[in-house]
Amino acid sequence: ATLYVDASSTRPIPKNFFGIFFEEINHAGTGGLWAELVSDRGFEAGGHHEPSMISPWGMIGDETVISVTTEMSSCFKTNPIALRMDIHCSPTTCPPGGVGVYNPGYWGMNVEEGKTYKIVLYIRSSGPLDAVVSFVTSDGTDMLAFSHITIMTIFLYLGGRVTNCRAEAEKVKNWTRLEVRLQATGSNPNCRLQFTTRQTGTIWLDQVSAMPTDTYKGHGFRIDLMEMLLNLKPRFLRFPGGCYVEGNWLSNGFRWKETVGPWEERPGHLGDVWNYWSDDGLGYLEYLQLAEDLGAEPVWVINSGEGHVDQVDTALIGPFVQEMLDSIEFARGSPNSTWGSLRAKLGHPKPFNLKYIAIGNENCGFRTYRGNYLKFYKALKKSYPDIKAISNCDGSKQPLDHPADLYDYHNYTSAEGMLDNTRLFEKASRSNPKAPKAFVSEYAVTDPKEKVGNGTFGGALAEAAFLLSLERNRHALDVVEMVSYAPLFVNENDRKWSPDAIVFNSHQAYGISSYWVQTFFKESSGALLLKSHLKTQTRTRSKTPHVHASAISWLDHQEKKNCITIKVVNYQNTTIELNMSFKGVDLKSIHLTKQTILTTDDCQDENTFENPTKVVPQTSSIKAKVEGKEIKVELKPRSFTAFDL
Ligand code: AHR
Q1: Which residue out of 23, 392, 443 has the highest number of ligand 1 atoms within 8 Å of its CB and is therefore the one to mutate?
Q2: Prediction pTM value
Q3: Chain segment 141-153, per-residue pLDDT in tens
Q4: N or C: less crowded end of the chain, CB within 10 Å?
Q5: Which UniProt keywords apply (predicted)?
């Protein structure tokens, strides 16, 4: 095969070409990137009835010495459930370890020796309080950190940070906020947080939080997972879904106003599509902060008044439209504006760089969509003409029947389908240069018939070919502006969707092959595409090319030099000799810097916790012959290679 590269003919790749899509699915945020260790910290997950269930919390001691119930007795109006414990034993009759409750976290809390954890809890007691807060291994045997809480006087209402107490309800008085720091004397990835006492009486607990003190920039994000995201150099962050935005029932969709402000006052909600409760510690402000910390532009997917089951008629959509406008003012309004001042009060006076709004997710098929969309679109453009509006309708096959800047395209298919899709956007109309561009915001090889498992190398190789087609194809670039893989994260204990780029548990994480494929594109956004043409004999029965290549030139800021990177997918199971033939560049000025190869023996290979690096890129010097204007290299069978020149 020969790749002809003309370095004198270039065109820019969009500056936000490559990014990530974060959805609250598979416990990606709750029990994942968001470092909060306590699950259901306000006891709201069981619902607002009395008594509610306390799960996932568990009891220490049994009914003879303790009874536990939930009561509508919290001092927080927005999350009224609290836990009530009646302790029937005394210092002489209670078990030596005391009685009380524990929280198992999200399949175990990762407690690490020497590290400090900030515990906050709201408490009310019928008498003097003598209790212990501790991290204990999940079997209850080993205590890795503890602190005594002893208060000798009966609580009076201490005020402080306890706000919203309903003065009229006698029983909710006398709450106070306690904060302790626990420093771990040992490590265990499967711990629980315990609250125990040997004091007779009644104790109410609410809003219990345990946060590691070392989170990314102190912003609450788990550091190891953040580092994996930073390694992708994403230029945009689409959030927070996905179906999560919509909800099966609209009442369970993502409503940003309920996710901002003091964490204790956030009501939390059931994400009923992926079926788990979120305390919404990772709320709208945190998502914007996440984008900023990643150096990525936020792409905010708003609820367009459409859940999977129920939708709001266009005549009644006004409040949803206002919610969108308010969310934009919150993100980028001046600190003197109504919502901008809230952002400033919450610690971020500087506006966020919000330039993209996606109106709904996969809602184009709904009867209400076009009507609703137009209301959102018009209001958006009237107040914020610079914000790009993203439609849910497919503009690749025929022009959209409504105005938009981008249209959302989701591409889940088999490996062969993904290879076929390398031609997807060739057919898209180019007659109107102002027509909306495609935002391929979700793509992945998912077809279970092909045994994609939890993310095989074979699937990822087809995705690499697809990404190259978006990056390379001069025509495709006219119509494709942005691309991101989906889903991004999975907590191995709650796999709702496969594959997912990053797999984690309480203390470990690894990337599947699809994650590593994405790392090959981290310099693509804003780079220059060099005109190239691949000549190869190889064609399959389906006429889908099995060799794909692209050439880009980009500025290496660290080394302060221009680089050329040639990326090639060899989807065949034979070695290929590739001649790289250059025009418009002096070969003498080219250094064979390094080659990075992602390959393995078997297309079914995948990474696991047991072998997280089975399929990872290997970097070495370039083994090449330079002859005249050609560089000759070998492409391994079934491989993805990047040559840095
Ligand atoms: O990525 C998983 C799901 O796939 C998303 O929630 C949805 O947008 C799509 O159907």
Answers
A1: 23
A2: 0.95
A3: 999 999 999 876 4
A4: N
A5: Glycoprotein, Hydrolase, Signal
